[in-house]
């Protein structure tokens, strides 16, 4: 479980460059749904998600862990198990409490930083998008949207389940070519909260006993 989380959080989701733009196909209905949700999130001062993070093989989730995610503009903080990731708008800080290590890096232009809603922006250039109807997810009659990479990037497909009435993400499933599956199911959502001014600030003084590596 820890290795899979490290692969997804610390490594981030790698997104392959698009070869030919004209080869991309985006269903109009799916695009409107995703654009409406994106606009809704972008209109908020900040957002908070509490979610379960599941991993497994062959499409079957075998382990789950709770996670939390805060965002404000392009800044965010994500925590799953003993791994925390902070993006302060300039650098990504990966904090591993178990190994007492911190890795600091600039975001790579060819990667998409992890978040429960990262595919709301990356789909525009990197995926074919189809609308697959409705599906009941955790009691919500959700719209089911499938993303398929335009160019090979290690991902076989991504399923997005959204509550169009509330314009919110409900669930995300990422299926890899290696048969790995990662699932984020959002359990609680809050917006426009009064957050600590240092919510997205990395304070080295709190990690004096950690090995800190800046790439």
UniProtKB/TrEMBL annotation:
Alphabetized Gene3D superfamilies for the sequence: Lipoprotein localisation LolA/LolB/LppX (2.50.20.10)
InterPro entries: LolA/LolB/LppX, OM_lipoprot_carrier_LolA-like
Transmembrane portions of the chain: none
Superkingdom in the source lineage: Bacteria
Keywords linked to the UniProt accession: Signal
Keyword Nucleus part of the UniProt annotation: no
Keyword Signal appears in the UniProt entry: yes
One Pfam short name: LolA
Name of the molecule in the record: LolA family protein
Annotated organism of origin: Chryseobacterium kwangjuense
Lineage of producing organism: Bacteria, Pseudomonadati, Bacteroidota, Flavobacteriia, Flavobacteriales
């Amino acid at each position: 479980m820890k290795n899979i989380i490290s692969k997804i959080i610390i490594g981030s989701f790698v997104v392959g460059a698009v070869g030919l733009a004209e080869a991309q196909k985006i269903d109009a209905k799916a695009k409107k749904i995703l654009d409406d949700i994106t606009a809704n999130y972008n209109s908020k001062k900040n957002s908070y998600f509490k979610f379960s993070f599941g991993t497994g093989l062959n499409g079957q989730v075998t382990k789950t862990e709770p996670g939390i995610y805060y965002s404000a503009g392009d800044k965010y903080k994500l925590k799953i198990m003993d791994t925390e990731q902070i993006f302060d708008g300039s650098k990504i800080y990966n904090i591993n409490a178990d190994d007492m290590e911190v890795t600091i890096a600039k975001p790579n232009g060819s990667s998409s930083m992890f978040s429960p809603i990262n595919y709301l922006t990356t789909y525009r250039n990197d995926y074919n998008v189809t609308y697959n109807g409705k599906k009941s997810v955790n009691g919500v009659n959700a719209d089911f949207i499938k993303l398929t990479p335009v160019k090979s990037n290690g991902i076989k497909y991504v399923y997005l389940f959204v509550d169009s009435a509330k314009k919110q993400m409900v669930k995300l499933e990422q299926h890899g070519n290696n048969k790995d599956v990662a699932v984020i199911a959002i359990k609680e959502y809050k917006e426009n909260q009064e957050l600590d001014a240092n919510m997205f600030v990395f304070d080295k003084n709190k990690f004096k006993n950690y090995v800190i590596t800046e790439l």
